[in-house]
């Protein structure tokens, strides 16, 4: 009996020692994405599990919420490696489903815009920061009153857009938007809303240029990044809404 009791005690001790050294039970750092304090336990995980923990901590920004306060779509409630791995696996499944739906919708939009893109192409000729004075011609005095001069300070984000006629008929009107997807952000960057008429007639195999700017807004960090970032971060996308040809034909995307 004494031998059995001793054996049982040894087994229980080994079990609790194993549990105490199980890296899956390691507590996540609170309120930080710095995992250096749990690096030794992290290195004892399988590579796939380690990547899941790191992805979860980055996505949660170190937040640890009560279940009652957590977003059901992204419940950042994990307190251990094991819980983080389970939540990140669930998120991967949900994200893949969302991306599949988004890809299907994007394909439908591309199909609707294809006939218009075959007629006219829009792209960024250049992007720059200019001063209001460079964009506004000073007005002549009225009744001897001189209006305030525009500022010389370069603060306005200006995009010059080139519209190319790819068809064999003159284009007399085009509407649509030009935007840039950002690898480092969820929402795209609006570059230009295009709405040109007969004054910007585009003959076959020729092009016209227009400027887009908002004088009442100063250039922001993403606009400056669009100008300065190396190729790869931003992708320019042309979303035509309508094209009217000289013969009266009007084509719309319906979007």
Please, could you describe this protein's structure?
With 255 residues, this protein is an alpha+beta fold. Helices cover 35% and strands 25% of the residues. The chain has six helices and seven strands. The chain has helices spanning 2-21, 39-43, 47-60, 81-117, 132-135, 221-228, and strands at residues 120-130, 156-165, 171-182, 189-196, 207-213, 234-245, 250-252. Strands 4-3-6-7 form a four-stranded antiparallel β-sheet, with helices on one face. A three-stranded antiparallel β-sheet has the order 1-2-5. β6 and β7 (250-252) form a beta hairpin. The longest helix is centred in the middle third of the chain and has 37 residues, at 81-117. The protein is elongated and about 105 Å long. The termini are far apart. Mean pLDDT is 89; it is low at 12-19.
The total of beta strands comes to 7
Strand order of the largest sheet: 4-3-6-7
Coarse structural class? alpha+beta
| Low-pLDDT runs | 12-19
Rounded radius of gyration (Å): 30 Å
What is the makeup of the main sheet? 4 strands, antiparallel
Number of helices: 6
- Round the mean pLDDT to the nearest integer and report it: 89
Distance between the termini: 82 Å
- Helical content, roughly? 25-40%
Any idea what the shape is? elongated
Q: What is the subunit organization of this protein? A: single chain
| Percent of residues in β-strands | 15-25%
SSE order in H/E notation?
Answer: HHHHEHEEEEHEE
């Amino acid at each position: 009996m004494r031998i059995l009791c001793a054996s049982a005690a040894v087994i229980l001790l080994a079990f609790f020692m194993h549990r105490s050294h199980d890296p899956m039970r390691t507590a996540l750092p609170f309120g930080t994405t710095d995992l250096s304090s749990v690096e030794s336990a992290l290195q004892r995980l399988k590579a796939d599990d380690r990547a899941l923990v790191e992805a979860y901590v980055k996505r949660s920004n170190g937040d640890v919420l009560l279940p009652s306060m957590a977003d059901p779509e992204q419940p950042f409630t994990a307190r251990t490696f094991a819980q983080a791995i389970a939540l990140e696996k669930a998120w991967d499944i949900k994200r893949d489903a969302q991306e599949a739906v988004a890809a299907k919708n994007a394909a439908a939009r591309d199909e609707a815009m294809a006939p218009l893109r075959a007629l006219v192409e829009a792209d960024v000729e250049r992007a720059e920061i200019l001063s209001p004075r460079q964009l506004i011609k000073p007005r002549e005095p009225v009744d001897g009153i001189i209006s305030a001069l525009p500022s010389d300070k370069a603060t306005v984000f200006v995009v010059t857009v080139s519209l190319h006629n790819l068809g064999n008929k003159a284009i007399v009107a085009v509407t649509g938007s030009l935007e840039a997807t950002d690898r480092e952000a969820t929402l795209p960057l609006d570059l230009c809303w295009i709405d040109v008429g007969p004054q910007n007639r585009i003959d076959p195999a020729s092009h016209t240029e227009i400027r887009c700017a908002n004088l009442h807004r100063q250039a922001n960090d993403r606009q400056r990044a669009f100008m300065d970032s190396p190729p790869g971060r931003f992708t320019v996308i042309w979303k035509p809404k309508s094209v009217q040809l000289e013969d009266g034909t009007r084509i719309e995307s319906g979007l």
